[in-house]
Amino acid sequence: MWLYLIAFLLALAIGYALRIYLRGRECKIRRDISNKTILITGGSKGIGQETIRQLANYNCTIIFGSRTKPTEFLNHLNKYYPQTTIKYIPLDLQNWKSIQQFVEQVNKEVKKIDILINNAAIMGTLTREFTSYGLEAQFGTNYFGPFYLTQQLLPLLKKSDSPRVINVASVAHTYEGLDFNDINCDKWANSIFWSRIYTYRAYGNTKLSLILNAQEFSKRTGIKACSLHPGVVRSEVLQYQLSSKWFDWLLKILWPFFAYFTKDCYYGCQTTLYCIMMSDNQLVDGGYYDNCELSKPKYTSKERAEQLWDFTLELIKKVEKEQR
Ligand SMILES: NC(=O)c1ccc[n+]([C@@H]2O[C@H](COP(=O)([O-])OP(=O)(O)OC[C@H]3O[C@@H](n4cnc5c(N)ncnc54)[C@H](OP(=O)(O)O)[C@@H]3O)[C@@H](O)[C@H]2O)c1
Predict the structure, then answer these.
(1) pTM value?
(2) Which interval of the chain is the signal sequence (predicted)?
(3) Which candidate, 129, 151, 127, 140, places its Cα nearest to that of 96?
(4) What residues contact 121, with CB distance under 8 A and at least 6 apart?
(5) Fold type of domain 27-323
(6) Which residues make Cβ contacts (< 8 Å) with residue 118, sequence separation at least 6?
(7) Taking burial as the number of CB atoms within 10 A of a residue's CB, which of 16, 191, 205, 278 is the most buried?
């Protein structure tokens, strides 16, 4: 009897310790960011929203953009954190005009940007979707739209004494198959064998692109940049999969396991906070962070980063011509 009890308690203790390990680290660094202006894409939900909630304690200025306005969340923060300025501006990264209007509005609201966080993204669209400027939806939303947005915000970033750009990437960059001749993943989408899962490869491409972008950023702009993996987080990023009935059921059945092995948004935003809170000397330029520490991404190289940057600039020229 005692033996069973001890075994049970031991199993509980191990289970609890494993859970603490799995939910990841908390950012322990703090610095004064009260004079900083932070711009974050996404923020209507998920990791972005939790990042804003945590930053609201620091009396800084926060601007965020997404397609939906989280009115209740905004009212709550404005009521309980009156020292922090929090502004929402509509932004649809799939729409060229919307990105330009967002930038116009940001220029009216602030004189500089100290920290830009490219956080917004979609994952695993079930049907083949495209942006208003003709690119595969994930490539447009997660990488190309943010690249264009960042370029447009460079003058404001350059007005800061110590600007930085943080790209929220993912460990999913390892699913990549980045091919500059097939940026919309047409080959994969049209293949009988791969068409069902092409969407994850397309997502992986965008996340690798964000990491490569951060590696090339300061060389091209003189501004420090980094990227990060937030962990596997219970946010709304699975919304496309959940619209598939079988996936929805599978997740319902496996929910306790899923919850055990994943993070909530509070822990999910800790590595983003870490990249914000590190001093300029601590932040490794072009570094990739995971679980509040420096990590090593896969499939990156100096040549690939350079190639992607030049390729994206060319693509912008092409899209700009078409959108005129
Ligand atoms: N959750 C995870 O396990 C996980 C793992 C690795 C990496 N990540 C990365 O973490 C970041 C945050 O994801 P999350 O988990 O918080 O996902 P989420 O809950 O789905 O939030 C995504 C955010 O992006 C915004 N967004 C989506 N499409 C947009 C568009 N066209 N224009 C402007 N904003 C748009 C959404 O706002 P609207 O819908 O209102 O536009 C929302 O605020 C993403 O970059 C994601 O790839 C997440």
Answers:
(1) 0.96
(2) 1-17
(3) 140
(4) 42, 138, 141, 142, 168, 206, 237
(5) Rossmann fold (3.40.50)
(6) 41, 146, 149, 150, 165, 166, 167, 168, 210
(7) 205
**Residue 158 above 80 pLDDT?**
yes
- Please check whether residue 96 is in contact with residue 319, taking contact to mean a CB–CB distance below 8 angstroms: yes
Q: Return the higher-pLDDT residue of 255 and 169.
A: 169
- Distance, in Å, from the CA atom of 181 to the CA atom of 314, rounded to the nearest integer, reads 13
- The secondary structure of 222-277, three-state, reads CCEEEEEECCCECCCCCHHHHCCHHHHHHHHHHHHHHHHHCECHHHHCHHHHHHHH
Query: Which sequence spans correspond to the domains of the chain?
Result: 27-323
126 pLDDT more than 90? no
Q: Is the CB of 275 within 6 Å of ligand 1?
A: no
**DSSP tag of 93:** T
User: Where residue 252 falls among pLDDT bands split at 50, 70, 90?
Assistant: confident
The residue behind tokens 């397309």 is 202
Among 23, 54, 66, 270, name the best residue to mutate to test ligand 1's pocket (greatest count of ligand atoms within 8 A of Cβ). Answer: 66
CB of residue 62 inside a 6 A radius of ligand 1 = no
Q: Is 68 in the pocket of ligand 1 (CB under 6 A)?
A: yes
Assess whether the C-beta atom of 103 lies below 6 angstroms from ligand 1. no
Residues 38-87 pLDDT 10s: 999 999 999 999 999 999 999 999 999 999 999 999 999 999 999 999 99
Confidence bin at 190 (pLDDT 50/70/90): confident
* 231: number of Cβ within 10 Å: 22
For ligand 1, whether the C-beta of 45 sits within 6 Å is yes
Residue nearest to atom 17 of ligand 1 (CA): 237
Per residue in 281-303, pLDDT tens?
999 999 999 999 999 999 999 99
